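Protocol step 4 of 5: obtain the predicted structure for the target chain.
Materials: sequence only (see below). No template structures provided, no constraints applied. The aim of this step is simply to have a reference model before the mutagenesis design in step 5. Sequence pasted as it appears in the construct record:
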Amino acid sequence: MGDPAGVGPEVVMGALGAEPHRAVVVGDLVRLEQALTVSRFGGRAHLRAVPSAAEARFEPGAINVIDLRNVPRDLPWGELSEIAGAAAHAYVERAARMALDGEVDAICTAPINKEAWRQAGIAHPGHTEALAALTGTERYAMMLVNQKLRVVHLSTHTSLAQAIARATTERCLECVQLAADFLSQRAGVVRPRIAVAGLNPHAGENGLLGSEDRDRLLPAVEQAQAAGIQATGPWPADTIYVRASAGEFDAVVAPYHDQGHIPIKMIGLDTGVNVTIGLPIIRTSVDHGTAFDIAGSGQARHANLLAALRLAEELAGG
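Step 4 output (structure tokens):
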């Protein structure tokens, strides 16, 4: 359900009210009922509390909810709080356990607020890191997916200076391997073609505009090639995403957050889906935040969560 003070409850109700999915919501029933009242689907859907996914019944208009009952009825919309942060983390924990135990085939997450998690004393900065810890995963990465691009990020929520420091040969090789494994094992791509985007302008011009591409990224590409992966690069970042969106590559490895996010969001704000690759479970997520400024107003768009749900179902085999 995501942060109960944000738009998560509304987009969940909107998505599941818009079209049928074999989904079980882990959240707070009262909060979801409140979200349903501001949704345009309020008169066409009803919530049903179930103790487990096995007892869910998928009938027209019914939305199954595993109710953790951890949010006060009068929790304000659009306000940062320790209560909301702790609740959101509890939903992630429960969903991860369900996926690990085989109760569900995939999980799809609504947005959380990182500051609320910090206030609640959560050690992890976000969903991705929490799920990695909960599943005992050490090698993982964020992949953004839309109808034209798949982009894997060497780093995500860190400063540009730290991102450059983290763009090591080892991390680049790891992300290329994760991308190749995900595409071949989960997405059904035979011999995936992985492009590595350059860090510096013109991918460094062989050291003239910075040495990182030549000294760090190129060795990772060469090691991946030696391992049998169809990897190339580093390529100038100002053209590689155009080439990939035209179908020349199956995925691009981006050296830092904004370089990878901008081309995805230029194609469409509602279509980009976050996939955590490297986990033993399937996890997709929206690519937007809690939008506290409109939470509880009924203005939140659910198209991005629908895209994440559809991709989760596709990756799970139906």
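Step 4 remarks: The chain has two domains: 1-137, 139-278. Residues 201 and 236 are 7 Å apart (CA to CA).
Proceed to step 5.
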